[in-house]
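Quick one: structure tokens for this chain, please?
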Amino acid sequence: MMKKKIYITIIAFMFCIIIIFVGKSLKLNSIEDESTKEIVFNKILDSKNVTALESIEIEKDGKTFFLTLTENEVTVIELEPRNDSNWRMSGEYCIDNIVLHDFLEVNGLYWDTILVGDGTLLIYGICSLELGIKEIRAIVSSRDTYVYTLEDNRQLFFFDINDKNPLTITVQGINDFNSVVAEHLRSEY
């Protein structure tokens, strides 16, 4: 009878310890879920086991887009708020560096678009460092010109354009002498 009481006491004690650990674990997870967009962005990079070599952040329609160059790819990570303090990934657009390298060799720049909820476009891209590009121009439907100035040794660019239905977009890389050293025109989205 005495052994039975000891076993019941030990089992009850172990059960209490398990409940305490599970409770603490759940509490830690709920705290960890409260994340800023920067924390979520860094967690995504950590999960891919990559480091951001260059990054640009742009906000549009309550969402945040991180254009990032890593050792493996160029990626756009789209984050949106879940509530007042939490963010989550709602989209990702990638091009790996092997394909990107071939594209940069031929055209000197790579760009693509993201359709945002209100029907407008974001233009993102990367240019070749070897061409000495200092400025990127986006000419939309031969009407509007958007300019993005690159800092030294930077390759990434991001435009928020106001045209909801562009017929064509031409992206140009401009050097120090105001000469076009790279150009790519597209008319389908």
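The mean pLDDT is 83.
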